[in-house]
């Protein structure tokens, strides 16, 4: 009877040990799944970070290109303004004298009237 009782206890302990091992295996599998999930998240983050870097790089390149275009346009406009000012200074100017006050468009630099025929 004592042997039967001890065998029964051993059997119960073996069942508990099997259940405990099964629970531990499930916990281990859950932990593995969590680790795999975290590793995927880290990989995704790295990809996103690399993508973000590439996107930022592209945006910077586009901004630099745009800035170059704006600067080039500014240089063209500056050159055109300088040329316009130079041309304005090269234009002939009529001299207004008291002798020819009545005839503004037909005066030479000597103050004489020019009669066009």
Question: Could you tell me the mean pLDDT?
Answer: 79
Class computed from helices, strands and strand pairing: mainly alpha
State the helix count.
Answer: 1
| Radius of gyration over all CA atoms, rounded | 48 Å
Total beta strands: 0
Distance between the termini: 152 Å
Unreliable spans are none
Query: Can you write the helix and strand succession as a string?
Result: H
Largest sheet: none
Written overview of the protein:
By secondary structure, the protein is mostly helical. Helices cover 76% and strands 0% of the residues. The N and C termini lie far apart (152 Å). The model has no long low-confidence stretch (mean pLDDT 79).
Q: What can be said about this structure in brief?
A:
This protein is mostly helical and 117 residues long. The chain is built from 1 helix and no strands. It is rod-shaped and about 130 Å long.
Notable characteristics:
117 residues; rod-shaped; 76% helix; 1 helix; mainly alpha
Secondary structure: elements and pairs:
Elements: H1 2-90
């Amino acid at each position: 009877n004592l042997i039967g009782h001890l065998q029964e206890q051993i059997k119960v302990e073996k069942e508990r040990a099997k259940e405990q091992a099964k629970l531990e295996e499930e916990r281990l599998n859950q932990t593995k799944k969590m680790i795999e999930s975290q590793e995927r998240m880290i990989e995704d983050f790295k990809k996103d970070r690399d993508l973000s870097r590439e996107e930022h790089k592209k945006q910077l390149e586009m901004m630099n290109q745009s800035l170059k275009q704006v600067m080039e346009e500014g240089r063209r406009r500056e050159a055109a303004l300088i040329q316009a000012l130079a041309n304005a200074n090269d234009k002939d100017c009529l001299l207004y004298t008291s002798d020819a006050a009545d005839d503004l468009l037909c005066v030479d630099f000597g103050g004489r009237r020019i009669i066009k025929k």
